[in-house]
Structures are given as structure tokens and as C-alpha cells.
Amino acid sequence: MCALRGHRIAGWQRGLAACLLLLFAAAAMAQQTGMKRGERHESRREIDQLEDNWRTAILQRNVAVLSSLLSDDYIGITAAGMLQSKDETLASLRSGALHLTSIEFSDRKVRFYGKTALVTSRAEVAGTSPEGALSGGYRYTRVYVRDDRGAWHIVSFEASRIRERDVH
Questions:
Q1: Rounded to two decimals, what is the model's pTM?
Q2: Beta strands 152-161; 70-77: pairing state
Q3: How confident is the model at residue 39 (pLDDT cuts 50, 70, 90)?
């Protein structure tokens, strides 16, 4: 009888442990985003708009808008693996060394971690860069950080060319 009673308690304890684990996981996820659902939704709309602003600034070679989007300590990693500071990125756009004629986004995902937003997406691009012609599909990661005034700024960017798989 004691063994049976012990078995029931163990089952109850497992159920309680599972419930507590789920509660802790949910709390950790809520803490990870650092935002309530409504705030996350609004921030997502802001990031989507900033992504569109970035696209327009690049296509129109609008250095002033791009400068306002990039943080002072911005660092970019091009698809060719070259590092670019904010000043180098703006100079490249200003001089025409970076000249994109089309950018089409798809498969965008935005995740939030406190005051940080991580954007991953696919971009079909055409144009030229300091490394040469740009054409085709790229995956990129762009990192935004919200400053003390509540404004989002791009602190990091990295692009990778999508390679077609061999079908041999």
C-alpha cells in the first residue's frame, strides 16, 4: 500500500514538475523578448518600416537617410567578407561604388531580445558594389538596437550569397 501511495505521489509530482517547467519556460520567453505582445507588434511595424526606409535610401542613394538609420558604431560585413564602418558605407553610397538598382525582400523574420531586434531575410538584388557586380539571392542579418530615446538604429549587418545546390 505504501508503494502504491508513493507511486501516486510520484505521478502527481511529475505533473507538478511539468507544469512548473512550462510556467518557467513561458516566463523565460516573456523575459527574453522583454516586451508585451502589443508592444512587440508595434515594434515589429517599426522595424518593417525601417527596413523599407533602408531599402529606399539604398535605391535612391540617400546618404542622409542611411546615416540616420546607422548607429555611429555600425559595422557591416559584405557578401565578400569585407568589413565596413558607417563612414565607409556612406562613402561607398555617396561615390556610387555601391549602386543597387533593385532589392526585393522575402522571408523576413524579426525577433526581439529586450532593446535589440534581429532581422533575417532573403533579398534578390541587382547592382554593383565595391567588390563588383551584385546579382541574385542573398540572405542577410541586420541588427537594430533601441537607444535611450526609443529610436531604433542599425548596429550590424551581414550578407551571404545564396549558392545554388549542385544537382549531380
A1: 0.75
A2: parallel
A3: confident
